Amino acid sequence: MGPAQLTMYTEIDQFVARYIHLSEEELAFFHSLLKHKKIRKKNFLLQEGEICDFEAFVLKGCIRSYYLDKDGIETILLFAVEGWWVSDLTSFSEQKPTNLFIETIEDSELLSIDYKNKQLLFEKIPAFERMFRILVQRSLGVLQQRFYASISQTAEERYLQFMEKYPLVAQRVPQHQIARYIGVSPEFLSKVRSTMYKKH
Predict the structure, then answer these.
(1) Which of 18, 33, 91, 139 could cross-link 52 (Cys pair, CB 3.0–4.6 Å)?
(2) Residue 48: CB partners within 8 Å, gap ≥ 6?
């Protein structure tokens, strides 16, 4: 394995090491199941109606996943940047069509594993089941917190919380997409921000 390949796997190996301990042989097997992809900005990894066949670790770039309602209005589910995973967990685990779109905001670089190889990974290295279970639990926790915030906090509070929790993401995505993430129209967020600046 050359230096470039070692560098390519460094971030994902460090991520995995936070959850489970692997031997060199197990790491090599894990690497063999991953596909390295480079995707230009404003390209789709997944579109509504397709079956999601990847769980992808972001090496570089910024990606968003979102729904479209019947009027074509977006609701953004998440932003993913370096060191985050992106997928449609339901479509992937059940191998059923998705109702999500996953699109690159910036030129992006990913390491992805498909459904078949993930099952093989679990068979050969059961410790990975623990890691992915923790990731799913955390994702569920984040979604529950967002749902609670949507019914208990003002738009200003949700905006401030987003800016505080995800400052690096906030610098890289346009304001109209942040609006769709916190559940308001871009016009409404513009008014909220104007009021905030007048206050301070």
Answers:
(1) 91
(2) 68, 97, 98, 99, 100, 101
Distance of alpha carbon 164 from alpha carbon 128, whole angstroms: 31
Structural contact between residues 44 and 35, judged by C-beta atoms closer than 8 angstroms: no
Q: Taking each helix axis from N to C terminus, what angle separates 127-152 and 155-165, rounded to the nearest 10 degrees?
A: 150
Residue type, 69: D
Sheet bearing 63-68, strands edge to edge: 44-46, 101-104, 63-68, 74-80
DSSP 76-113: EEEEE-TT-EE--HHHHHHT-B-S-EEEESS-EEEEEE
Q: How would you write the pLDDT of the chain (200 residues) with one tens digit per residue?
A: 555 555 799 999 999 999 999 999 999 999 999 999 999 999 999 999 999 999 999 999 999 999 999 999 999 999 999 999 999 999 999 999 999 999 999 999 999 999 999 999 999 999 999 999 999 999 989 889 988 988 999 999 999 999 999 998 999 999 999 999 999 999 999 998 888 877 65
Half-sphere exposure for 125 (CA within 13 Å, toward CB)? 21
